[in-house]
Design a protein that fits this description.
Structural class: alpha/beta
Distance between the termini: 20 Å
Mean pLDDT: 94
Order of helices and strands: EEEEHEHEHEEEEEHEHEE
Radius of gyration: 16 Å
Oligomer: single chain
Number of helices: 5
Length: about 240
């Protein structure tokens, strides 16, 4: 199957789950990549965290217009992956909080636009608005991202715990939330993630499982959910 393996919705938005917390959004001829982890970097640091799902090399053929990194942990900002997309010849908008921004700029390139995308920062490009919101994680600069496109609001929480302060940053009409439920590494477990999703009332796509562990995303008890599969098509 080609690059048409996507999460589909009735409008033109196409979304592919890249595994772990990685997402590829395609809309209005724009390609937006969030937290891609397409290497074995983590295993080099912790052998227990080996990939249980191989990398699909076809994703390196994607030419992203925008890349977003939510925080500076290797399974979210992975230099081995990033160097396959960002270099001296690319012209990519890179949205990243300070912890990543200080590192990713080392890839250089006069046409790459490195935007310091910290909490409460907004950026609009090609009619799509991106807003950085609070995340409660072990990287003090960690963010979540609200993406407003085609009349919908997509919320990528990034790695985060349940924290009351987050809700003050969120709009009241989120349509879809992409949320970690693995319960390790300062992420919500399934119980707290369910409470979080009930609080915002959005359809949920649970993530951050299945790459380094054997957690079954179908066990996430929130009813209004879509369980993604690695590199596979899902309908929101």
């Amino acid at each position: 199957m080609s690059m048409n393996n996507h999460i589909y919705e009735e409008n033109a938005m196409k979304i592919t789950w890249l595994g772990q917390a990685g997402l590829l959004f395609e809309t209005n001829n724009m390609k937006i990549m969030v937290d891609p982890y397409l290497s074995n970097s983590v295993e080099k640091i912790n052998p227990n965290n080996y990939r249980r799902v191989p990398v699909e090399e076809r994703f390196f053929e994607v030419k992203p217009d925008i890349m977003i990194f939510t925080h500076n942990h290797l399974d979210h900002y992975d230099p081995e992956t990033v160097k396959r997309f960002i270099n001296e010849k690319t012209a990519i908008t890179v949205l990243a909080p300070n912890s990543v921004w200080n590192e990713v700029r080392k890839f250089g390139g006069k046409q790459n636009n490195y935007v310091a995308f910290n909490r409460k920062t907004e950026w609009t490009e090609a009619g799509i608005r991106f807003s950085a919101v609070k995340a409660e994680h072990s990287d003090d600069y960690a963010i979540g991202v609200i993406m407003e496109a085609e009349g919908k609001k997509y919320y990528i929480t990034g790695d985060t715990l349940y924290n009351e302060d987050i809700f003050g940053d969120l709009p009241g009409d989120i349509d879809y939330v992409f949320i970690p439920v693995n319960g390790l590494g300062n992420n919500m477990n399934m119980t707290d993630a369910k409470r979080f999703c009930e609080r915002i009332g959005a359809k949920a796509v649970p993530m951050h499982c299945g790459l380094f562990d054997n957690i079954d995303l179908h066990e996430f008890a929130y009813e209004n959910k879509v369980v993604p599969e690695f590199y596979q098509e899902v309908r929101l």
